Amino acid sequence: MNPALEEQLKALPERPGCYLMKDARGHLIYVGKARSLKNRVRSYFQAARNLTAKVLSMVAQVESLEYIVTDSEVEALILEANLVKQHRPKYNIKLKDDKAYPFLKLTVGEKWPRLLVTRQVKKDKARYFGPYTTAQTMWETLKLCRRIFPLRSCNRVEAHTRPCLDLHIGRCLGPCQKDYSGEEDYRQTVAELCSFLEGKSEELIQRLKGRMEEAAGNLQFEKAAEIRDQIQAVEKVLEPQKVVSSGFEDQDAVAYAASGDDACVMAFFIRQGKLVGREAFFLTEVEGSSGPEILGAFLKQFYDEAGFLPKVILVAEDFEDRGPLGEWLSQKRGSRVALSVPRRGEKRELLEMVAGNARLALDEKLAARRREVEATTGAAGSLGEQLGLDRVPRRIECYDISNLMGQEAVASMVVFIDGKAAKDQYRRFRIKTVEGPNDFASMAEAIRRRFARAGARGAGRPAGKFSELPDLVIIDGGKGQLSAARREMKELGHGSIPAFGLAKENEWLFAEDRGDPIILPRDSAALYLVQRIRDEAHRFAISYHRKLHAGAAIRSALDEIPGIGPARKKALIRRFGSVRGIREAVLDDLAAVKGITRPLAEKIKEFLGGR
After folding, report:
1. What is the DSSP letter of 100?
2. Cα dihedral 210/211/213/215 (nearest 10)
3. Which of 446, 376, 441, 458 shows the shortest CA–CA distance to 414?
4. Could you tell me which residues come within 8 angstroms of residue 490 by beta carbon, excluding any fewer than 6 positions away?
5. What angle is formed at CA 589 by the lines to CA 586 and CA 591, rounded to 5 degrees?
6. CA–CA gap between residue 467 and residue 31 (Å, rounded)
7. What's 423's DSSP letter?
């Protein structure tokens, strides 16, 4: 321990607050909170036998620390949550990746509230619902809400004489209409949407039935029918909801499962005794952390941004900050939030079911990760073994040629890194020096241009993404294309890079110095990887060739028309998209294009034909 750190430890006060540990480069690696900063921080620097492997690894990197004193442990908890969210220190348990979960935002601060999608929870007058762990779930919820609760979804706040389509199909109450007088209905719909998103569907149905009966009693049968349809839509959502509690209180049930450096926390959302939803949340950097630490870290991060706080949160285990966290959440809710650890009975059985679901979700994620490794880095390793390479080919480049009778010939270069497509490093070449349909010469030009740029870095010129050389080159074609590519690679000093030709018919690989093909086993990960790379190179080349060919066709057709220069040609293509679109356009539409007179429009029709 360096002397400066020893002095910092001696100066720690016996007060609540947060401590920030930093490494030799000044990077923040851990944030924690404490009831007593002096006692908590000094405990990290005790005998090694009392510390976990994770803490030992962290403490070994600590070169300095800072602390922030707070008035209470609850304030320290809030500050810790904000600092972890802002800095994402290396050794703190993290909820998901660096991405924010999506929320549904109800803009109750606006005159005519809307339901929107956001990934940022701000301290404004809006109501937030979520977070949703998958975008699909969030979009399905949004679609359902807009069908049942017809609030505006546009930015039109001023009065319009022509309302949009949403009003005509019953998806909006139309507050943008002139002389709109449905303010009370709109406010009621907003309140009902809040109840629905909070899971209070039973209460909502009772209110809707009361409104339906009132409308029918006032002989407003059309309005009563609309409310009836709304009730049926809500009841359809309620059908699959399972009763999991004999009580009718709103509560969340939270449990977890952990394996290695990964953990899954499952949350069941129970409203009025029914399970209205569940979400699986994945945490990283948990190896060496205890169950209570995992649970506490999740609860701090999740409920810091949660759109709704229930009266009761059931947790599978007790944890250190349960008291301060309960006080903090109670302050956020405006009434008491109980963090309960049931030991027996119905609620304990519920938590065991939640924990079982967490284990299944974690096992499924880990299995998917293993399958992905087998299909990517594992497949690249297997391919290297099959081809007899000295090392795993981390960066693989594949080249393909596309042309139509020698016209508009192009070459594609696709890049796979660790078995995954690196699309930002794809390149395409428009063949410039080859006349006619000559795939060998076209391949030679593409390889020459690519590897000539690779050497530019050594000559003091920028080479961009071309500066990184491949571990393996695949040429989509037979021995002729491979020979042309190898000749260029050797001349440019890159003959040591292994390269193979891929025969289109049998998917056999050919090496320059052996006569027999290399036949990859059917149903092998190596063959599937080669097929993916080849298909991607072919797709990329074909798409570029079609784009150039279409552009050439447009240019050749319009260039024959007297009076059509570059500016007018560009205006016509922008307006009609293609020669076919120009040909099928009516005379008046052609004459309406900037720079096109009526006599010139008639001339275009004469040259291209059409109606």
Report:
1. P
2. 160
3. 446
4. none
5. 110
6. 40
7. G
CA distance 429 to 453: 13
- Residue (of 47, 69, 66) closest to 8 by Cα position: 66
Is residue 146 scored above 60 in pLDDT? yes
Task: Report whether 377 contacts 454 (CB < 8 A).
Answer: no
**% of the chain beyond a pLDDT of 70:** 87
In 3-state terms, what secondary structure has residue 366?
helix
Q: What region does 219 belong to: left with phi over 0, alpha with psi -120 to 50, or beta?
A: left
Sheet containing strand 17-22, edge to edge, reads 28-34, 17-22, 64-69
Long-range contacts of the stretch 460-466 (C-beta < 8 A, 24+): 465/424, 465/425, 465/427, 466/427
Question: 472, 396 in Cβ contact below 8 A?
Answer: yes
The token duo for 327 is: 């006080």
Contact 379, 399 (CB under 8 A): no
Residue 141 CA to residue 161 CA, distance in Å, equals: 31
User: Quick one: pLDDT band at residue 460, thresholds 50, 70, 90?
Assistant: very low
DSSP 256-321: EEEETTEEEEEEEEEETTEEEEEEEEEEES-TT--HHHHHHHHHHHHHHH-S---SEEEESS--TT
- Residue 38 CA to residue 9 CA, distance in Å, equals 7
CA distances to 405, 433, 442, 487, 549 from 436, in Å: 7, 10, 10, 21, 15
The pLDDT value recorded for residue 232 is: 74
Which amino acid, one-letter code, is at 566? P
Write the CB contacts of 109 (distance below 8 Å, at least 6 apart in sequence). Answer: 124, 125, 126
Whole-angstrom Cα distance, residue 370 to residue 604?
61
Q: What is the distance between the alpha carbons of residues 73 and 523, in angstroms, rounded to a whole number?
A: 59
